[in-house]
Predict the 3D structure of the following.
Amino acid sequence: MKILGIETSCDETAAAVVEDGSTILSNVVVSQIDIFAEYGGVIPEVAARSHLEVIMPVIARALSDASCTWDDIDAIAVTYAPGLLGSLLIGTLTARTLAILHDKPLYAVHHLKSHVYANWLENKMVLSRDGSLAPVVTGLAPSSSAVASGSPRVAPILFPVLALVVSGGHTQILYMPSHNKFEIVGTTHDDAVGECFDKVAKILGLPYPGGPSIAKAALSGNPDKYKLPHPKVRGLDFSFSGLKTAVLRAVQKELGLPISHPSHDLKNHLSSEQVADFAASFQKTAVAILCEKLSLALARYPDIQSVVIAGGVSANQELRKALPEAYFPEPKFSGDNGAMVAAACYYEIESGVAPVDPYSLNIYPRISIES
Ligand code: KG4
Ligand code: ZN
């Protein structure tokens, strides 16, 4: 079954064709990062306008890269929630129109579900929790030669699965008893971890998006230079707004400036060595918090067979190194893409989910994965 996946929930316009939930026939992503780097963050109206400009060429390219015509496509999958209202509208209106025009069943897919299902795409790093495999280099994608030679999927992901979703908008631990069933067992009380990377990067004067720039700066930094506190949130929940403030206070203290000193000016006083040390110390703390909660979750759910990590922050190499037994998507599928939408849709169809009405599909900027 060939599914066309369309994703426009934030600032990436993406489309892909995936066969049977795993084989990637094409994957086209047009990122607006260059536009938003100038502003230091996403401007929703600009994002929607940019999606509108490129979505049709992106879909056309996804079909041609996959050597498909519309006749070859069995279903269309589109992100309908959560995300930016205008961005979601462009993706869903396009998908609805195409479904009507080409008479294809249309499936509405939740964005976090898609991130989780990026782990079922081929060419990812796989290492089972029962230790049946020799440790693959932690969290890294297989070498390109292994991918090119079509190396077999080594160990299937087994249920129940624990999924750690770490994106720009969400930080959640999900319990998955079987395909397409999700229970939220932990969530953030305030900021998402990706948002925290982005905000800390801003304080340090590093470019948007903050995750990759913090990771890069941290390479030459000392992760033990600054001691940053772990939030005191009980159970499996998270809080990241305090960590961002802790970095802000530590920077002000390091520079001998008062806490009233504006955060946007601090970057002008920091040396590149200080930036690297703060980036490394912050990254180490954020990764440690995620790992702590994950261990707590594993202790609470001893029946878990596999752990999957999902969302933009799952590209982080330190997180990958810290969790050698977890499944990670290939880094290029950690961020937003259409392939994961198609993969999630395939397992929805397998689970008996019905297509939606292309004449009435709505968008939901804030809806939970459980609904
Ligand atoms: O999943 P995603 O692409 O979009 C959302 O659904 O939110 O996640 C984007 C987030 C951003 O906050 C970005 O800074 C973060 O993922 N990110 C990273 C890395 N690459 C992207 N965070 C840490 N380390 C990275 N290498
Ligand atoms: Zn995302």
In short: The chain has two domains: 2-117+333-350, 158-326. The longest strand covers residues 23-31. The chain has a mean pLDDT of 92.
